[in-house]
Prior knowledge:
There is one protein chain. This protein is mainly beta. The protein has one domain (about 15-150): Hotdog Thioesterase (Thiol Ester Dehydrase, Chain A). Helices cover about 15% and strands about 35% of the residues. The protein is built from 2 helices and 5 strands; from the N terminus they run E-H-H-E-E-E-E. A 5-stranded antiparallel β-sheet has the order 1-3-4-5-2. A hairpin with a 3-residue loop joins strand 3 (about 85-95) and strand 4. It is elongated and about 55 Å long.
Amino acid sequence: xxxxxxxxxxxxxxxxxxxxxxxxxxxxxxxxxxxxxxxxxxxxxxxxxxxxxxxxxxxxxxxxxxxxxxxxxxxxxxxxxxxxxxxxxxxxxxxxxxxxxxxxxxxxxxxxxxxxxxxxxxxxxxxxxxxxxxxxxxxxxxxxxxxxxxxxxxx
Length: 155
């Protein structure tokens, strides 16, 4: 029987906010070049996992140790479309939680327009919130690692 590795510890300051640039790919768009609404959700995941990686711990390491973060709630607001080849920035912020959950807020903003579209296309085009629950390998609620528990001392 294989033993479960210990829960990894961060080797850097725990970040509570971060930003990741993403170039909208052709496969994420409809025939008019507009990013499909489903493309945004993986971008949020990239924002969360890169925020975690900034602490020196990858999500894969947490899973190996039996710590899984599952989306329990997701709310999205689409304000304006983004298009093929736009460069967007996914901004992720930890805004709360408890011993068993983490709450995030997100914004997606256009950094660079990849297509010539009329008018000002800068600014926030999408906003979302999510609640992630911490579970074990069997899907039962478990406590977050202490260092990952949201609290003001991590700011």
